[in-house]
Amino acid sequence: MLKIKKTVAENIADKLSVAFGGAEITAEMIEGMLEYPPDAKMGDIALPCFKLSKVLRNAPPRIAAAIAEGFECEFVEKAEVLGGYFNIYLDGQKLGEKVVGEVAAKGEKYGAPDFGAGKTVVLDYSSPNVAKPFHIGHLGTTVIGHSLKRLHEFAGYNCVGINYLGDWGTQFGKLIVAYRMWGNKELIESGGIDKLVELYVRFHEEAEKDASLNDKARAEFHKLEQGDAENIALWQWFVEISLAEYQKTYKQLGIEFDSYKGESFYTDKMPAQVQKLRDMGLMKIDDGASIVDLEEYGMPPCLILKRDGSTLYPTRDIAAAVYRKETYDFDKAIYVTSAGQSLHFAQWFKVVELMGYDWHDKLVHVPYGTVSINGEKLATRTGNVILLRDLFALAIEKVAGIMNEKNPGLEGKDKIAEQIGVGAVVFYYLSNNRIRDINFVMEDALSFEGNTGPYVQYTYARACSVLAKSGSYDRSAPVKISAPEEAELVKVLSKFEENVIDAIDTYEPMVITRYILDVAGAYNRFYHNCSILGAESEEIKNSRLALTEAAKTVLGNAFGLICLAKTEKV
Ligand code: ARG
20 to 30 A from 55, CA-CA: which of 44, 67, 311, 328? Predict the structure, then answer.
């Protein structure tokens, strides 16, 4: 494992304890203070010593000077004092040997931390509501959720991906009524989910005029809850049709779930939790409804039962969490939803705590901002929403158009266009801080020039093509770092693992997209400035091919963490 910052920090802490005897400065503290200077002229790693002046009661330049005196450390070429900064320059040659060797030895495992070994993480994500449109609002939960799963798996966690389908509720009463009035078997069989959504939309339109439809819908849902065979069969069929449609999108993204236990699964698991709340005296009747008062914690009450005794969204989440703890004994349970649901999660997490479940602090809500779409007019077959499927379809179509112009003879064009089109959407989306609201501009996402998915996938293909053209090379030959672009590339490659750790700690896939851009940028500068296949000597050629191979492996590993396909040819 390459822990350069850590090694540097240990050496600095040792120096400090000698120079300023008695000062309690740990290597960990120093590691947290180390920075990557924005400009290479200021070194590769820097310690801003003013952060220490208070504890050490000394001026920053004096502290820097004390560290610099006779400073020695693996991979460090030289160190300098600049004002209050202690600046370190890494030894490209030594680092290159180490990095290239490690990437080659570890391959798909290069960059993987190991702190997840023996631990389980349950991730609840995507979770669309059956028979309602699977729209771009679900893009976030789907790709952030899956990236977090990949990141945790990479760190050694046993991961359980759960698609908590919204497969229960009054919408099924509505759908059953609508189906019997305006639908039929053939229509749904041929039209699939679109027809279901149409029926659902029509129901709402007609119910505006005729309110008795709502009563009918409630009655049908009640029958469903009571286990009416005909309604159950219809419900199951609606769920199956919807799921078949979602699977197409998941397949494009390379996503598989370990469990599809949706809301309906928890129907018989709620009463025990409601009873527990009642027995513990946590529940209060408020205007006929049962609630848990959370005023003391600065939140509105958490609703457990409606006036008619029916359960609610939080009730189900509480029962599901208990079930998941019993079933998977998780060390962490992650829920990825839009920020609009933050209060809901804060409320029921609190209720779980009040219920005395000691694992309440293992529940994590990961929120994200809204997505809007600008410029492009997307086909909106159903009402006002933009379907995820249509967004991907448009991206794929555009990429296919570009490819037909650029490279008409390319083999397997359709597949590649799909990978790049879908990748463009995913990469663009994950390039932003997840909590920020984003405005989707298709043109920008699809550009081959900007900081986009197509650009990084193209870079990956470029590395593959260099390696393919070389035939084979001598992998045992020594690494020779002879150009600054090579040194820069190995420095970037050495930082993979710390970025993975940062992404996991902050639940932020953007850390990985940014890192991918750093690697792609460094590789492309190397590619343009250093001749690889036409290198001045066989030795340098071998070394540059090894660097190319290392860059390809790191890019590929990082792609895997954010649902981006490894495109060998573009
Ligand atoms: N089905 C919900 C929705 O589309 C998301 C479910 C999130 N997960 C959860 N355990 N509440 O809004």
Answer: 44
The DSSP call for residue 379 is P
* Ligand 1 touching residue 127 (CB < 6 A): yes
Instruction: Assign residue 30 the CATH number of its domain.
Output: 3.30.1360.70
Asked whether 163 lines ligand 1 (CB < 6 A), one says no
Answer yes or no: is 224 within a domain: yes
- The CA 164 to ligand 1 mean position distance, Å, reads 7
CB of 167 closer than 6 A to ligand 1?
A: no
State the residue range of the domain holding 222: 169-253
Residue 345: CB within 6 Å of ligand 1?
no
The residues with which 372 forms a beta bridge, in sequence order, are 439
Q: Which of 422, 469, 450, 458 is nearest to 567 (CA)?
A: 458
Nearest CA to ligand 1 atom 6: 127
Residue 453 belongs to a domain with what CATH number?
A: 1.10.730.10
If you take atom 10 of ligand 1, which residue's CA is the nearest one?
317
The per-residue pLDDT string of the chain (570 residues; one tens digit each, 9 = 90 and over) reads 568 899 999 999 999 988 888 668 899 999 999 999 998 888 999 999 999 999 999 999 999 999 999 899 989 999 999 999 999 999 999 999 999 999 999 999 999 999 999 999 999 999 999 877 788 889 999 999 999 999 999 999 999 999 999 999 888 999 999 999 999 999 999 998 889 989 998 999 999 999 999 999 999 999 998 999 999 999 999 999 999 999 999 999 999 999 999 999 999 999 999 999 999 999 999 999 999 999 999 999 999 999 988 899 999 999 999 999 999 999 999 999 999 999 999 999 999 999 999 999 999 999 999 888 765 555 444 456 788 888 999 999 999 999 899 888 888 999 999 999 999 999 999 999 999 988 888 888 888 889 999 999 999 999 999 999 998 888 888 999 999 999 999 999 999 999 999 999 999 999 999 999 999 999 999 999 999 999 999 999 999 999 999 999 999 999 999 999 999 988
Indicate the number of domains in the chain. Answer: 3
Which residue is listed with tokens 């649902």? 563
For residue 303, tell me if it sits in a domain: no
The pTM of the full predicted model, rounded to 2 decimals, is 0.94
Kindly state whether residues 547 and 402 are assigned to the same domain. Answer: yes
How far is the centre of ligand 1, averaged over its atoms, from the C-alpha of 337 (Å)? 7
Same domain, 67 and 180: no
User: 3-state DSSP: the chain helix, strand, coil percent, rounded to 5?
Assistant: 60, 10, 30
User: Is 522 domain-assigned?
Assistant: yes
Question: How many Å separate Cα 201 from the centre of its chain?
Answer: 32
- Please identify, among 71, 90, 109, the residue that sits at the C-terminal boundary of a domain: 90
Q: DSSP secondary structure string, 116-155?
A: TTT-EEEEE---PBTTS--BTHHHHHHHHHHHHHHHHHHT
Q: Among the three residues 34, 61, 90, which one is the final residue of a domain in this structure?
A: 90
Residues 214 and 83 in one domain: no
Question: Which is the closest atom of ligand 1 to the Cα of 338?
Answer: 12
